[in-house]
Amino acid sequence: MGILESMEWGFLEHLFEGHAKTIGTVLAIVLACITLAVAIYRYRQTNTVERILSRTAEKVRHEFEQLEQGKEALKQALRVLDEQRVAIMARQQRLDNVRTAFIGKEQDLWCLHRAKKLDEHARKITRQHQRPIIMVANLKGGVGKTTLAANLAAHFSVLGKRVLLVDVDYQGSLSNMLLSADGCDKVTAEINKALLPGANFATASESVRPFVKVLKGSSLIASKYEFASLENRVMIEYLLQDHQDDGRYRLANLLLSSEMDDVFDVAIIDAPPRLTAGTVNAFCASTHLLVPTVYDLLSAEAVGTFLDSARTLKRSLNHEIDLLGVVGMLTYQQGRLNVREENAKRAAIRQVSKAWSANHYFFKRHIPRKAEIAKAAGQDLAYFCDPTVRRWFDSLGAEIAERLGWQIDASRRRATSGAARLAGAATMSESAGVRVQ
User: Fold this and answer.
1) Is residue 304 part of a domain?
2) What's the CA gap between 236 and 227, in Å, rounded?
3) pTM
């Protein structure tokens, strides 16, 4: 009901006489305005509250979102901390393993971590037997490793083989000998390029230096004292697993690559008398192991110790490496061994049978002591300077070729032996068994 309809007009007419309706209308309008004002006020108050509530809700929502973001950031931080904790624990475990490995046998250190892609490596080594890689090694020094490696390379070169010589001994004796003979007086540790992380044919092929004067058609990867620092680094990185690639197989990645097919027919690696990173890389890259030894009782025992270590490495790192044989070096005469040497050889045979297996071979041809071998070092190779030395290594080379299953061209063999006979006319007396000092 409207305001005007609700008013008592009779009362107003009596009170205000003739002006009652006018005054009533005014009052009604005033009351309507008041009602409208109250309604507007209430409306505005309601909107203000809603806005306050809306702003409050927005603020609460924003604070809630910030809280959720904070919680997510906290969770992320906790995840990172947990990952770092796990990484620290894993690294601590590796350090503990390293400490334990150094306490044990030297070969166990290099078998601490399981080799990756061992089956693929075995296939490559099996294929590589067609172009053998021969590691000349013994953990005893002074047994003629470098002499054997250099003069065998000369023999194979004369047969028309492209020989790759690899020096993994930081002393660089082989490198100094061959580069001096080749007219080069600067020796650098090119072997480093083959053992850097991620090394492959593309990055390490420039380390291969062709010979110019001696062993033409053949080449060398040289070593020098700087190699020792890299070996230490490779060992630490391997032990701590700081690289994706396996530091033990870097030389194998180079020598077993198909690109090397055009570089060599046979490779000879001169290894140091220690199980260094270079030695282990040589072992993992080789198809055959050739062990020089002196025939004395101390060296005979050392052969057994070395082959026991090599057997452990074979089981873990290179299943397909074969023992090419054991070579007697620095014997006292060219013909038969003396009594002491025969006794030492028998002791060595027992040691090798025990450490490796019954499947072993001792070469019939041994290499006597001869001053000409030492005199030639640094200027030339004794193989080219002395016909007697040449005959020795031709004989040993023929045995090795037979062990490798090579079919040597008969005409080449006759040419080689013929040249040796012509050059050796002045030393025929030694062939009758004359003692050689």
Assistant:
1) yes
2) 14
3) 0.76
